[in-house]
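Work Package 4 report. The design task specified in the project plan requires that, given a folded chain encoded as structure tokens, an amino acid be chosen for each position. We show below one input record used in the internal validation round.
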């Protein structure tokens, strides 16, 4: 039974499991070589766009900040993704014709997707995408073709790797002393290095370095939040899209420096590196596989260990504080979440562990995650209201971790002077024939934005195809003009203080609504409760 339930995880697994598949058969060498600050690169023409894959944007030693990449002679072939940064593969959920994707600590590369025929004179809008994965997973390979978004929207999409887990977010006092205070934020610094590379090089590819939109999903959405708040990102992008990765009330919100030290010291001790004077050198000597043995490097709980911490240099305050204080003043923002985000987490944390969720399991989950308000949560989500305990779990995950934090993020941004378009994505990629089939799950919108995920084409047809075109037009239009509103698209007006309108996005029709807080019981999840 559990194995049959896992069959629907294929689409979800594409965004989690690092694999390599056979490249598209219509690939051919790009007609041009492009000059970067490190040397010439030549990509490939595929899907009627140019792809420049695996271009180094930085180098870094273990637990050290990124630095400028080295130079190369001749023309570098950029026809395949660079290796993913070290991470523990969840699973196993194999994809057809797949082989393990290469992994290396030398992983700071960026993939560029450019409309065919673009020249350095075109000055196209640029969209930099930050992938998700709870800050312990993710790579450029998984999002390997935004071809239709690029072609149809006439935008350049850039997707960088960044370090995850302890490689990107280890936080120790001795690391701070070595790195000028930077500690627990190396993955965030990698993202900034990629943005600087885009600023300095994208013009040669035909992009406008003055018109960059930063967007991301899940931990990538929180990464967008963190970059909005970070002083080091000022001027590197003009607009932002935050998908299912709210800047507020999330377990991925950057905690204090002291919390970072506590978590990282416990991690080091678990690997036998206990002495403060030798702890860092001990960790640097361990093989990659040993560093990944810790349970903290996996993704099997809503509780998190890894992610950026407030180090006082790269990250100086929480994104919510920064938004309320005006960090995004006058910045256009799209902020949203999906209707049933929690479906995938029930699958990952329950079904993939061979467990069938029960009423007792639901109660235990609530008390474990929300000990201070468990009684109120259980009263607001009585399990008998739902067809199954699994769907009760999904509702709590959805509302507490994504929906209501997205609403709080919108409120904070508007308070700080940002212009916000909020959405709720309600399309179900796999349909809704049975309660065990995921609905509008976490990451569902990515199957409409991208043309291929993990090497697997997404051949939408009918209303789903129309929705994919709508979403791509809205995102590309926002990147070009700072607004997702345009003729031929559903009306989508900005959210206002005291008037919480949002766009309900669905393949059965997208329309403005104002019942978001009621649908997701956001009064309960407010801090303090309303």
């Amino acid at each position: 039974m559990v194995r049959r339930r896992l069959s629907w995880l294929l689409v979800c697994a594409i965004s989690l499991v690092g694999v390599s598949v056979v490249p598209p058969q219509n690939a051919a060498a790009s007609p041009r070589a492009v000059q970067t600050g490190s040397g010439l690169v030549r990509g490939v023409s595929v899907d009627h766009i140019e792809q420049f894959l695996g271009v180094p944007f930085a180098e870094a030693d273990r637990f050290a900040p990124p630095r400028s990449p080295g130079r190369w002679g001749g023309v570098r072939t950029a026809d395949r993704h660079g290796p993913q940064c070290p991470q523990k593969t969840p699973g196993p959920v194999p994809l057809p014709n797949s082989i393990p994707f290469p992994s290396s600590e030398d992983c700071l590369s960026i993939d560029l997707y450019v409309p065919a025929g673009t020249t350095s004179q075109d000055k196209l809008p640029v969209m930099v995408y930050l992938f998700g994965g709870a800050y312990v997973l993710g790579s450029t390979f998984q999002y390997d073709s935004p071809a239709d978004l690029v072609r149809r929207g006439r935008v350049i999409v850039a997707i960088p790797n960044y370090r995850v887990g302890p490689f990107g977010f280890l936080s120790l006092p001795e690391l701070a002393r070595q790195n000028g205070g930077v500690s627990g934020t190396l993955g965030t610094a990698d993202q900034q290095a990629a943005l600087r590379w885009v600023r300095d090089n994208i013009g040669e590819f035909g992009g406008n370095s003055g018109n960059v939109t930063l967007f991301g999903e899940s931990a990538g959405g929180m990464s967008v939040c963190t970059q909005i708040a970070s002083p080091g990102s000022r001027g590197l992008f003009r607009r932002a899209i935050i998908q299912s990765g709210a800047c507020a009330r999330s377990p991925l919100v950057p905690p204090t420096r002291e919390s970072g030290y506590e978590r990282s010291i416990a991690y080091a001790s678990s690997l036998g590196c206990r002495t403060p004077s030798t702890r860092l050198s001990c960790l640097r000597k361990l093989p990659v596989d040993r560093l990944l043995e810790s349970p903290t490097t996996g993704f099997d709980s809503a509780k998190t260990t890894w992610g950026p911490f407030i180090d006082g240099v790269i990250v100086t305050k929480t994104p919510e504080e920064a938004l309320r204080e005006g960090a995004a003043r006058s910045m256009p923002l799209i902020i949203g979440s999906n209707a049933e985000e929690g479906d995938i987490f029930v699958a990952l944390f329950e079904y993939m562990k061979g467990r069938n969720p029960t009423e007792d399991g639901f109660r235990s989950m609530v008390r474990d995650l929300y000990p201070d308000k468990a009684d109120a949560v259980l009263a607001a989500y009585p399990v008998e209201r739902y067809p199954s305990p699994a769907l009760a779990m999904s509702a709590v995950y959805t509302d507490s971790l994504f929906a209501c934090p997205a609403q709080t993020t919108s409120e904070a941004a508007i308070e700080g002077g940002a212009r916000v378009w909020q959405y709720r994505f309600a399309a179900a990629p796999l349909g809704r024939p049975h309660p065990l089939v995921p609905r509008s799950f976490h990451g569902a919108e990515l199957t409409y934005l991208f043309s291929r995920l993990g090497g697997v084409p997404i051949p939408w047809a009918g209303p789903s195809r129309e929705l994919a075109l709508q979403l791509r037009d809205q995102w590309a239009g926002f990147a070009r003009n700072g607004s997702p509103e345009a003729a031929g698209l559903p009306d989508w007006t900005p959210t206002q203080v005291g008037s919480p309108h949002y766009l309900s996005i669905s393949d059965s029709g997208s329309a403005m609504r104002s019942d978001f807080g009621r649908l997701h019981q956001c009064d309960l999840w407010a801090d303090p409760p309303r």
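The two ends are 42 Å apart (CA to CA). Validation will be extended to a larger panel in the next phase.
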